[in-house]
Amino acid sequence: MFPYVRGGTFDPGRGGSPKAARHLGRERVPVGTPIECRRATMSHTRPQETHTSHPPNEGVFPYGWGDRLKAESDRRPEAIAGCSAAWRDPLRVEVDALMSDDSSPSTYNDPDRPAPIDTTRTHSARIWNYWMGGKDHYPIDRIAGDQVSESFPEIVDLARTSREFLIRVVTHLTEEAGIRQFLDIGTGMPTANNTHEVAQGVAPECRVVYVDNDPLVLAHARALLVGTPEGVTDYIDADLRDPDAILEKAAETLDFDQPIALMLMGVLGHIPDEDMQPIVQKLLGALPSGSYLASYDGTNTSEAYNEAIEAGNKHGDVPYILRSPEAVAARFEGLELLEPGVVPCPKWRPLAGELSARRGLDQYGGVARKP
Hints:
Elements: E1 21-23, H1 35-41, H2 65-75, H3 77-81, H4 85-88, H5 90-98, H6 105-108, H7 124-131, H8 139-151, H9 154-175, E2 181-185, H10 195-202, E3 207-212, H11 215-224, E4 232-237, H12 243-250, E5 261-265, H13 273-285, E6 292-298, H14 303-313, H15 325-329, E7 336-337, E8 343-344, E9 363-369
Parallel strand pairs: 2-3, 2-5, 3-4, 5-6
Antiparallel strand pairs: 1-4, 6-9, 7-9, 8-9
């Protein structure tokens, strides 16, 4: 997997320091705003961009955020037209602010404002979004993504089968295990079928806390990660390498006396061997019995994948480490692994038509219960 770092470089790493929790479950509409504008605000809007063509999403993402805005404006154009620009498109305003050259104190000294986005440099979160069929990327990201996929075409399958894995895992934990709380660390760019959408689609009362530390992800999370009225969807700006800060802030939203699903999807590859288990154990140690760990990462099972990751690591500050399947399985030690164990992500309880002879098999994952 190619996640990202603060600063926008094309790099399979993460970095940054914790900030305050962002509570996204609350409606942020000014008093006196017309009711039609309030409703239009809930349209999950995004920047309107021109994109080059890329492979179809193969049904993984049936509804795009841009399509939702278009559907809303087609259905009730008077509602969209009657609102100010900020309420018509909160994400556009947020991203425009991040990309602003304004260096006034109000721009950079505001603790609630993330750092500006540099769209002249590749950003691996946007590249990953491009491979998954999303729309949050720029020409430079698409060029870089195409260069990688030309040398390692399976990277697109890895991106999409990892999201299919997440969907199946969250569905199982919500439907079968009765989990109603999720702590998703290293969430990356919102696309569709995010953790809260899958969980709250089954049980609207689910509480989901996302953790990431990138300004671009934060901007999109503020505007797009809106949960159900019955549940809560929050966002914490924090670093996986500081689990104490994550746990402290997550406790503002999650009940640590009740089971929680800890989601570490494709993120532990950024952590050195000597630090990985202590971080996992610190996080798991704070969770009650009956909680779950769901996790996957890339493995060194393919020479082509190894070469692609090695090439990507040359351009970044924090490398992504490909480990053996056995090393990936080690993070589940002391837990009760669900069947079929730690396997290639497409082979973890696949739905009909999802599993092919060779599609995204270089990422291994599993789900385990804390006794």
